[in-house]
Design a protein that fits this description.
Blueprint lengths: L17 E2 L1 E2 L30 E10 L2 E10 L2 E9 L4 E4 L9 E8 L3 E7 L2 E7 L6 E2 L1 E3 L10 E8 L3 E7 L7 E7 L4 E5 L9 E9 L2 E10 L2 E10 L6 E2 L9 E9 L2 E8 L5 E6 L6 E2 L13 E9 L2 E10 L3 E9 L5 E3 L9 E9 L2 E8 L6 E8 L6
Parallel strand pairs: 2-6, 11-15
Antiparallel strand pairs: 1-30, 3-4, 4-5, 5-6, 7-8, 8-9, 9-10, 12-13, 13-14, 14-15, 16-17, 17-18, 18-19, 20-21, 21-22, 22-23, 24-25, 25-26, 26-27, 28-29, 29-30
């Protein structure tokens, strides 16, 4: 039995956030409201997913503008796709990415070179562009292994002195094996070694570059049944060590990380998805939990933090709050000092959305995600103000 769709939330303070114009695939019919789509009587009330749906799950800012990544789906087959924008207001699909059916973009980074990472079939994939318009598929070295690798994917990428990517190998129900890659220029990628025991039963979901080096965060356990959070550190991106799991939450997973000031902030949610969590580290080695706060809860219902972006000493986190068991509302939190958080007031532009990733660009927060789940997946970008600087 499906949950009733909620009424759009309203707020007198809703005027600060707006929707960008995002190009949709030519055959996308997802602008039709869910209530107007003919329902299959055998689908438990769901209309099915129309052809041409698209998902945004990564966003980055660089000298050439903004870059988002995800995939376009015709039926159930995804195809890796980037979007670009000069200012964040108008987004267009970048054609010509050399990617076939069954490919995904899961992470993007933008510096002098734009990079997208993900997977193609069962293999990790990376694409690079020097102008944001013309893309090339890059060679990925699988390392020194002499046995065939299991299905492997890159999930995130960060740029510091070098480019680093994180990901994992294994099936959805199998214990995962963490993977890391490093590149000097984005044009070739080598698998970076992990210290003994650092890869076992762990899945990096996000990476970030900071003053002390590189940090990755993720989860332990199989994809559908996580058992806790984990993290890694690398001084140079070439070798990775694992943070002691006892220093990280056992009842939560970490899904995103960013550099803030001289340290790092990581965000996620409890394994039960009934509260958001925030953890901080001054050096990428030792982590401590931020105090629980009512703004991290959602009336006992499901809530997730999925992305975070630093802004000076502050940060913006984004995610989704569920009404009932299915229909979501895009949700954002902000902090000026990395310690005290506020939840951005609900706004009509949030209703029906799910924010998956966020970046701060020229004083504007740019959040990427989708609208319309679980029946439709319309690529969506929200724009809002960066957190006010601490007095």
């Amino acid at each position: 039995m499906t949950s009733p769709r909620p009424s759009p939330p309203t707020s007198a303070q809703a005027g600060d956030w707006t929707l960008a114009n995002v190009e949709r695939p030519a055959d996308n019919i997802a602008s039709t409201p869910p209530s107007a789509v003919t329902h299959d009587p055998n689908s438990a009330g769901h209309p099915g997913h129309p052809a041409g749906q698209a998902v945004l799950d990564a966003v980055a800012a660089g000298p050439q503008g903004l870059l988002a990544g995800g995939y376009v789906s015709s039926g159930i087959v995804p195809r890796a796709t980037p979007w670009s924008s000069a200012t964040g207001r108008d987004w267009t699909i970048v054609r010509g990415l050399p990617a076939g059916d069954g490919s995904l973009v899961e992470g993007v980074a933008a510096s002098r070179t734009a990079v997208a990472v993900g997977s193609s079939g069962s293999r990790p994939a990376a694409w690079v562009s020097t102008d944001g318009a013309t893309w090339q598929a890059m060679l990925i070295n699988a390392g020194t292994t002499t046995t065939p690798e299991p299905a492997t994917r890159m999930t995130s990428v960060a740029v510091g002195a070098v480019m680093v990517a994180g990901g994992w190998a294994g099936g959805p129900s199998d214990p995962p094996e963490a993977r890391f890659w490093v590149s000097r220029n984005g044009e070739s990628w080598a698998q970076a070694p992990a210290a003994p025991g650092a890869a076992a039963n762990a899945r990096p979901l996000a990476v970030a570059a900071g003053p002390h080096g590189y940090v990755a965060v993720g989860q332990t356990g199989s994809e559908g049944q996580p058992t806790g959070a984990t993290a890694w550190f690398s001084a140079d991106g070439s070798t990775w060590s694992r943070v002691a799991d006892r220093d990280l939450p056992r009842d939560a997973v970490l899904e995103a990380v960013t550099s803030v000031g001289d340290g790092f902030l990581a965000v996620g949610s409890s394994i039960a998805r009934d509260r958001a969590v925030v953890w901080g580290s001054a050096d990428g080695h030792a982590w401590t939990a931020m105090a629980d706060d009512p703004v991290f809860h959602h009336f006992g219902l499901k809530v997730r933090m999925l992305g975070v972006a630093g802004s000076g000493t502050g940060a913006t986190a984004v995610g989704v709050s569920l009404f009932g068991t299915q229909f979501g509302s895009a949700t954002a939190w902000q902090t000026a000092d990395g310690q005290s958080w506020r939840r951005v007031p609900d706004a009509p532009v949030f209703d029906g959305g799910e924010m998956a990733a966020v970046v701060e660009s020229n004083g504007t927060v740019v959040a990427a995600g989708t609208w319309g789940a679980p029946d439709q997946y319309v690529p969506t970008v929200w724009l809002g103000p960066a957190p006010a600087a601490k007095p």
